[in-house]
Amino acid sequence: MVDVLVTNGPMLIAIAAAFGFLMAWGIGANDVANAMGTSVGSNAITIKQAIIIAMIFEFAGAYLAGGEVTSTIRKGIIDSAYFVDSPELLVYGMISALLAAGIWLIVASALGWPVSTTHSIIGAIVGFAAVGVGTEAVEWGKVGGIVGSWVVTPAISGFIAFMIFQSVQKLIFDTDNPLENAKRYVPFYMALAGFMMSLVTITKGLKHIGLHFSTAEAYGLAAVIALIVGFIGIFAIKRLKMNPGAGRQNQFDNVEKVFAILMVLTACCMAFAHGSNDVANAIGPLAAVVSVVHSGGEISSKAPLVWWILPLGAVGIVMGLAIFGKRVMQTIGKNITHLTPSRGFAAELAAASTVVIASGTGLPISTTQTLVGAVLGVGMARGIAAINIGVVRNIVVSWVVTLPAGAGLSIMFFFMIKGIFN
Amino acid sequence: MPVNSILGVFAKSPIKPLQEHIDKVHQCASILVPFFDATASGDWSGAAEIRQQINVTEREADSLKREIRLTLPGGLFMPVERTDLLELLTQQDKIANKAKDISGRILGRELLIPEAIQEPFKAYLQRCLDAVTQAKQAINELDDLLETGFRGREVDLVAKMIVELDKIEEDTDDLQISIRRQLFAIENDLNPIDVMFLYKIIEWVGDLADLAERVGSRLELMLARV
């Protein structure tokens, strides 16, 4: 059976790469709205700026910090021991999973459901493994963990958002001189965001470009970057033009201007976190296919990522962003929500931090979920005028529906592909 | 292409429209000053035109009210209770209705405020409108309240404004008592039916302040629950 892999190897890799690229493209086109929407919605950045930030930082996140979660997608959800006798099944399965997830994303977008790219790929992988090989091939514990993350991730993110927002209230808004305090404390928030982002990059991402740091070095370097970011923040705030006038309302307007600067940074963080977390959904299965084919049917759990895979995913995401993202953002622009930078920043920083923390545990989490949780967290702190609970419910339902939908599609494609090659 | 975006979770904020509504209501009640000035100078056709303005403004307030009610479906998660917001809106709207009633009654009966009580009546009306202005200012703090998460200094500030509103309302009560006395002193020289309506008008003008105070207490309740 393994000779199938030898004769059709390049072909299979090409197909997987094409589907992987398609999936990455879909992620870029789709999720840009979620990752950048709050920044655009609070008028901190324009649509054009959002697209540019997203392109740079999604790429950076995907390329520099995307390696870690990839391994979970590749070998965490299914037990590869069951594929040792028939490695080609793993290859077919991963290809069908990519195709299924990609198609499900397109369908969901057409229907306007905010589905999670992470869940669609996981559903698809579980689907082909459970039916094509046997239910015992699936690491149900891991799947259970993912289902658990539906509750845990938004909860963590909501909690962080709540805390951040409360601290902003205490330090800045509920004081005698909000503007002075904003100028004083916002650089610290900026430094915190910079620290989070650089830490995850250094600890999770730089291995594959041959840079290794000890833990102490990593923290030290992240702290240095955080300092630099903080100083840039102070400088940027100094250059702000404030509305004169001593009225409290004017004060708050000026405070929001200061927060808008911070928002630019958290938008970068969000794009970075999203790129690092979600690129795995596209390239995880591809990496699995490539490693099986290259090793002539041997399934090793320690196969390193081939050099061209990460860039392929990163480029795919950016292409999706560039080609489709603009249209998506304009749709958002039309029904923009009134959201002030101080709220948006709390939600974004919390969501990005949660993604960063969770990707350290290797659990594939959904960026959408962290963001929804964060928004609810700010709402709980009484920071948002109105949250539509009905929409929140629909989003949660679409997460639940995505798993079986992805699974069903991938089972179908799995048998098709198996029929073609065998 | 529809977007699968989570931005749908942000519903339209009711706070700005609510502030627009009180502004409209305040504008409507304020037109009573030129209206009474026109009647005092005996310019009834001018008064009728001004009354038309009051009508138009009241209608605008009504349509704002309707719009807010429609954008506040159930299933919204807000920092304040939905019922409190709607109740506040109802109270605000009553002020505009009252202004319309006053002008309508005066014009319908071509009722002239007697020369002897012209001046105190003007002062009385102005003080009642001050109460409405104060209510408007308190409501206009809502966006700052949202900014501070309905907590701390901003809440204290609004509480102070509401105390001030209560004081203004007490003032209008005193003014009302004295103006009734003055009317009582001259009522024998006037047409009895007119006098009955004059008492009615004095009462209604006082209601403007009462209603404004009620807006304040609604706001207070809303904040107390938070």
UniProtKB/TrEMBL annotation, chain A:
Cross-referenced Pfam families: PHO4 (PF01384)
GO MF, one annotated term: phosphate transmembrane transporter activity
Location in or out of the cell: Membrane
Coiled-coil blocks: none
Signal peptide: none
TM segment ranges: 12-33, 45-65, 89-113, 120-138, 144-165, 186-206, 218-237, 258-276, 305-324, 345-365, 371-392, 399-421
Bilayer disposition of the protein: Multi-pass membrane protein
Any one GO CC term of the record: membrane
GO BP field: phosphate ion transmembrane transport
Superkingdom per UniProt: Bacteria
Record keywords, A-Z: Membrane, Phosphate transport, Transmembrane, Transmembrane helix, Transport
Statement: the UniProt record of this protein carries the keyword Cytoplasm: no
InterPro entries reported in the protein's UniProt record: Phos_transporter
Family to which the UniProt record says this protein belongs: Belongs to the inorganic phosphate transporter (PiT) (TC 2.A.20) family.
Protein name per the record: Phosphate transporter
TrEMBL record, chain B:
InterPro entries in the record: DUF47 (IPR002727), PhoU-like_sf (IPR038078), Put_Phosphate_transp_reg (IPR018445)
SUPFAM superfamilies, A to Z: PhoU-like
Pfam families: PhoU_div
Source domain of life: Bacteria
Family, per entry: Belongs to the UPF0111 family.
Protein name: Phosphate transport regulator
Native source organism of the sequence: Shewanella woodyi (strain ATCC 51908 / MS32)
Source taxonomy: Bacteria, Pseudomonadati, Pseudomonadota, Gammaproteobacteria, Alteromonadales
